[in-house]
Amino acid sequence: MSEQRPKIKIGVIGGGAWGTALAMHAARVGHEVTIWAHERDVVADIRDNRRNSVFLPGFELPAGVTASEDLEAVVAGTTLVLSVAPTPHVGRVIGSVARVFRDDHILVSCSKGIENDSLETVDQILERALPHKLHGNLAYLSGPSFAKEVADQSPTAVTVASHMPWVGRQVQQWLSNNRFRCYTTRDVAGVELGGALKNVMAICVGAGDGLGFGYNVRAGLITRGLAEITRMAVRKGADPLTLQGLAGMGDLVLTCTGELSRNRTVGVRLGRGETLEQILSSTVTVAEGVLTSRSAWQLADKLGVADRVPIIEQAYRVLWEGKDLLVAMEDLMSRPLKDELTLG
After folding, report:
1. What's the whole-model pTM score?
2. Which end of the chain has the lower number of beta carbons within 10 A, N or C?
3. How confident is the model at residue 343 (pLDDT cuts 50, 70, 90)?
4. Whether 171 and 35 share a structural domain
5. Which residues constitute the domain of residue 158?
6. Same domain flag for 170 and 262
7. Strands (E), the chain
């Protein structure tokens, strides 16, 4: 993609691995990028050493990337904002600077999850946090994209969803280059549910690997997991074809099988006998699927499909009620037999 495109100022809200990788990519495209991070040591490391040693070690950040502790200034001084805050904090963080957004701002959510208690996906959280006049300026980036590989300039394909086609096309033009290809869609619901629920499935697949099961279990969980994700997404108004694309099958396969997957790693360690408390206390990164497993199960009940998402149910039982993994697997395998294309 050699065509010339306008260079803009981009703010990245969130200094974790994914936010840092996106900032590096945007700077390589030619934009000026400022990262806002909650952690002062991360801001100082980025600004002074051109590194994020805490969350994305081993990479030198491009010259176009800097960092700031002033969230309002980061938002006010940019044209495009990438929100990469963890889902439980999105509403609070974006709401705190809602008044700073201009009418011409575009905000792209790069977070994935379902908020506990409210059971809202990130698009719903943002629409609650921002004035109605900005709702048409929102987009949602998802797809198979490990932060480390984006930072390493490995070719990556993602999807940008927006209810307003011009917003999706604008973000596509700003962020695409010959190492990072953006597709567009209007199916926000499908992209949001695919991105959130694949993390739950990755824990399940990782647990199977940790228990010592082979590829049969992995393939079965991925395939039937996709059926459950699609079922829930369609109830939220999604196009089922979206779940066969990058934000569905693509992201699901990556997160369930990739060695860099935090959620898969949680499952592997559970399968090998560690407790959830031991796992979570030993890492500084966030495995979104743990919290999402609870909200996914509650959302399935709210949508009227709780009896048709058995993998999500067993994930909830294991992670939140302490159910034995082998018992959960046996319960999945011994359910009433049925035709593959029937619901359940």
Report:
1. 0.95
2. N
3. low
4. yes
5. 9-186
6. no
7. 9-13, 32-36, 65-68, 80-83, 106-109, 138-142, 156-161, 180-185
